[in-house]
Design goal:
Blueprint: E1 4-12, H1 17-29, E2 34-38, E3 42-44, E4 55-64, H2 68-81, H3 88-91, E5 100-106, E6 111-113, E7 116-118, H4 121-126, H5 128-137
Length: 138
């Protein structure tokens, strides 16, 4: 089996945000994904929508045998299992959420399809909180 390295960004702005992120970590590990390293937690204001609920965010470096699409599907299932019913990725209609998990990079590949963009351009180049998390991870 091939081992692939990916970077994920996770965020939560509903309920006990750190607990939500820790629950997501456990569910990620249950997918036979190894968490190699993690950034510090970072609180930030919502981006691209208005809310009084700030986000708690973290970046993870992982190792997986899953392909990019398999990884995306596993992460979407984790989001659903934690109560996220609306996937704003396609609609760009953002709102408060229990958990959000984005794939920022996967090995050094460039991959585009309707449901996935690698590398994740906005996290790498437009969102300040993302840059801070990725710097901390490195």
């Amino acid at each position: 089996m091939s081992h692939h390295t990916a970077v994920l960004l996770l965020g939560s702005n509903i309920g006990d945000q750190k607990k939500n992120l820790e629950t997501a970590f456990k569910r990620i590990r249950n997918q036979n994904i190894v968490i190699l390293s993690e950034s510090k937690f970072l609180y930030s204001e919502p981006v691209e929508f208005v809310s009084s609920n700030n986000f708690c965010n973290i970046a993870l470096r992982i190792e997986t045998d899953l392909s990019p699409i398999q990884l995306l599907n596993a992460l979407k299932e984790i989001e659903k299992s934690m109560g996220r019913l609306v996937d704003s990725g396609n609609s760009r209609n953002y709102s408060d959420r229990v958990i959000d998990i984005d794939i920022v990079s996967y090995n050094n590949i460039v991959f585009f399809c309707r449901s996935l963009e690698i590398p994740h351009y906005r996290h790498l180049y437009e969102r300040e909180f993302s840059r801070l998390l990725l710097e901390d991870l490195n």
